[in-house]
Amino acid sequence: GSSWDKCDFEANLCKALPEFSLHPGWIRRNGQSGMGPPYSDYNGNESAYFLSLSSEMQSSSTVLRTNVFLPTDEEHICQIAFHYWVSQMSGTLMVGLQKHSEDTVTNIWQVSGELRNQWNVNTITINSTEKYEV
User: Fold this and answer.
1) Which InterPro entries match (predicted)?
2) Count of domains observed in the chain
3) Is the distance from CB of 97 to CB of 105 less than 8 angstroms?
4) Same domain, 34 and 72
5) Beta-carbon neighbour count of residue 48 at 10 Å?
């Protein structure tokens, strides 16, 4: 059977992301925080929470790293669906895969430039024979 976890940031950072802290620059906020767009989440809810990069981070890069996922097999591929917003100011949003036997992060998806200032949704599929992080 398929199992899935929904992460909406309403109460915390969700199971997929390590609880100890947000990496520098990431903040958990909603559309009413007075920080500028987006003013609602992808459902149009102004009080719903999402993660956002603080404006001080415009010129540098920062990372959100998941907890460790177990290997996938033929019956259990991993699909990660996520909503994202790219503003006029931001650079590139990338999804990377790090397998535990490798030191490097492999870029498996990225977006920059198009569809700015609106919520978009994407699903990535991961097949890995070993433990990995995203």
Assistant:
1) ConA-like_dom_sf (IPR013320), MAM_dom (IPR000998)
2) 2
3) yes
4) no
5) 16
- The CA distance from 20 to 129, in Å, is 28
Give residue 63's pLDDT.
86
Nearest to 51 by CA among 85, 99, 97: 85
Please name every residue paired with 102 in a beta bridge, in sequence order, or none if there are none. none
Q: How far apart are CA 124 and CA 134, in angstroms?
A: 11
Residues ≥6 apart with Cβ < 8 Å to 50: 9, 28, 29, 30, 38, 41, 83, 85
pTM: 0.83
Q: How does pLDDT run along the chain (134 residues), one tens digit per residue?
A: 456 778 888 888 787 787 666 777 888 999 999 888 899 999 999 999 999 888 777 667 888 888 898 898 877 788 999 999 887 666 788 999 999 999 999 999 998 866 678 899 999 999 899 999 99
Amino acid in position 87:
S
Distance of CA 53 to the CA centre of its chain: 11
Range of the domain at 115: 68-133
Q: Which amino acid is at 80?
A: I
